[in-house]
Write a structure and sequence with these properties.
This protein is mainly α. It folds into two domains: 96 residues, Farnesyl Diphosphate Synthase, CATH 1.10.600; 166 residues, Farnesyl Diphosphate Synthase, CATH 1.10.600. The chain is 67% helix and 0% strand. The chain is built from 15 helices and no strands. Helix 3 packs antiparallel against helix 8 and helix 5 packs antiparallel against helix 7.
């Protein structure tokens, strides 16, 4: 990987996804640049919706990445420092491309206003966008050899996605989007129009509490699965150190108010302590 590409990926990740940036600080030095490039790519495609004025523009950006990964990109793809960094990591560690292209495909859902229909669909979305990221990071830590992380990547990916979308619930609703599984809200008697209008209430709080409980269940299962992994692979799952505290800070009775975030120093401390545990 070119030094300038690695530097660019680090800067992009630090600006776009500070939690994952802090998580890279507890990674072994030998794998830090590679996993940072992977995370920066994820941050780029995850933010396409925010940067695109309309779905068509977002589709073009996602297709550019898909073409770059499959060798069908036009022009000098490696002139893009983030693409250069990611392609270098793929080549060095022999990372499989299909999980990355499926990650891009899953992000097409972000471009539109359709609500997430049910828990099964959400778990599939989380698997393609977050669990796959954990799996690939573990593969990098293993020197590029295929790894079996069992339930660790799967459960932590779903928990991570749930916590993220619970924290962003109010903002997404203000943008006309509902990323959390709608079947849970419907079963609690919540109307879509109420959510999009920013109207809270007891029924909405109950629905969000059920989703928070589901996130806690996945976190508990992920913790057990991570503990069973070889110690060398565990740093790939360091973001788990932040999910429990972030979930605990949510005010589910005021979901349309910006949720309190952990101070940066607490994030770094939590990640450091997590990495030092036997």
């Amino acid at each position: 990987m070119k030094p300038e590409s690695a530097t660019y990926a680090t800067a992009e990740l630090k600006q776009a996804d500070r939690d994952r940036y802090y998580a890279t600080l507890v990674l072994p030095a030998r794998a830090r640049e590679a996993i940072t490039a992977l995370y920066a790519f994820n941050a780029d495609i995850a933010s396409v919706r925010e940067r695109a004025r309309e779905p068509a523009a977002g589709e073009i950006r996602l297709q550019w990445w898909a073409d770059a990964l499959t060798g069908e990109g036009h022009g000098n793809v490696r002139a893009n420092p983030l693409a250069d960094a990611l392609l270098s990591v793929i080549a060095e560690y022999g990372l499989p491309v299909p999980p990355l292209t499926r990650m891009i495909e899953a992000r097409r859902f972000d471009l539109y206003q359709d609500p997430m229909p049910d828990i099964a669909t959400f778990e599939g979305y989380a698997g393609e966008t977050v669990s796959a990221l954990y799996q690939l990071a573990a593969m990098i830590l293993d020197g590029g050899k295929p790894v079996e992380t069992g339930d660790a990547a799967g459960h932590l990916g779903v928990a991570h996605a749930l916590v993220g979308h619970l924290r962003a619930f109010g903002y997404n609703a203000s943008q006309g989007r509902i990323f959390l599984p709608w079947e849970v809200f419907k079963s609690c008697g919540v109307a879509e129009a109420e959510v999009l209008a920013g109207q809270g209430g007891e029924r909405l709080a109950i629905a969000l509490t059920r989703l928070a409980e589901l996130a806690n269940e996945h976190l508990a299962r992920a913790k057990t699965a991570i503990a069973a992994l070889p110690r060398d692979l565990r740093p790939a799952f360091a973001p788990m150190a932040l999910l429990g505290p972030e979930l605990g800070r949510l005010d589910l009775e005021a979901p349309f108010v910006r949720q309190a975030e952990l101070p940066d120093w607490r994030k770094i401390a939590a990640l450091t302590l997590w990495s030092l545990r036997p």
